[in-house]
Amino acid sequence: MSDIATLATVLFAMIGGAIRVSTPFLFVSLGECVTEKAGRINLGLEGTLVLGAMAAYMVAYETGDPWLGVLAAGCAGLILGVMHATLCSLPRVNDVAIGIALMSFGTGLAFFFGKPYIQPQAPRLPSVELGGWIGNAQLAEALTINPLFFIGVALAFFLRWAFDNTRYGLLLRMAGDSVAASRAMGVSVDGVRLAATAAGGFLSGIGGAFLSLYYPGSWNEALSSGQGLMAVALVIFARWDPQRCFYAAMLFGAAGALGPALQSVGIVKGYYFFNAAPYILTLLIMIGAGRDGKAARAMPSELGVQR
Hints:
Blueprint: H1 3-37, H2 45-63, H3 66-88, H4 95-114, E1 128-129, H5 137-142, E2 144-145, H6 147-165, H7 167-177, H8 179-184, H9 189-213, H10 227-237, H11 242-263, H12 271-275, H13 277-291, H14 293-298
Antiparallel strand pairs: 1-2
Helix pairs in contact: 1-6, 1-9, 1-10, 1-11, 2-3, 2-4, 2-9, 3-4, 3-9, 6-7, 6-11, 10-11, 10-13
C-alpha cells in the first residue's frame, strides 16, 4: 500500500471512528451543558451513562425493539437526574458530593440488574450507510453512521438557538447566572434546575444506549471507560456552548479513534499509548481551563457559589 493510500485509509478510518466514538460524548456533554447552564454541576453522569446502557440493552433484549431500549435508557437517566436535583435542593448539600454518590449508585444498580444480560445478544440499532460510493468495503464500513449521531448534532444546534432566543433558554441561563435575579422575576430556581438536571440525565442515558446497542454494541461492566466524567471536561472546553460541545465531542472521538485507525493499516507499535489519547486530552483540557480566563468568564456564575 502506498503512503498516500495508507494516509487516506487512516483518515477515513479516523473520520468514521470519530463519529462513532463521539456520539456518547456528544449526548453526555449536551446533558451536562444543560445542567450546568442552570447553575448545577452533575458529576454522576458516569453512573447515568452505565445505567442507561444497561437499561437500553435489557429492554431491547426483552422486547426485541432497540428504539424502546433507547427510550428506557433516557428514562433511567431522567430518574437519576430527578434524584440528583431533589437531593441538591436540600439546604447545605454539596452538588459534587451528591454527584459522586449517585455515580456509584447508578453504576452499582446497573451491575446488579445487568448481570443476566452480559451473555445474551440484544438487537442493535440500525445504521445509515454513507460510504457506498467509495468502492472500498473497509472504508464504507467506517462511514456507516447511526441515526443517533444526526439527532445529537441537530440537538446541539437547536440548544444553542434555544439558549439565545427562547424564554425557557433565558430562564435557564438566569438560574445559572443569578439566583437573586431569578427570584426577583418570580422564577422558581429549584424548579428550573430540576427540569435542567432531569433533561441532562435523559440525554446522558441516551448516550449509554448508543454504547450498548450500537458501538461497541454489547453490555458489560467495563463499557463506559470514564466517558461520563470526561464529558465534564468537554463542557468546560466548549465553554458551556452546545454547538461547541459538538465540535469538542468530535475532537474527543477522533482522539479515541486514533489507535484503531492506525491498527487498521498495520501500525501496532504504541497502540496502547494512542488508545490513551482521550484521557491525555482530558488532562490537558483541565490544565488549560484552569489557566484560561475566557473559560472562567464563560462559566455560569452560580457554579462557583457555595450553597
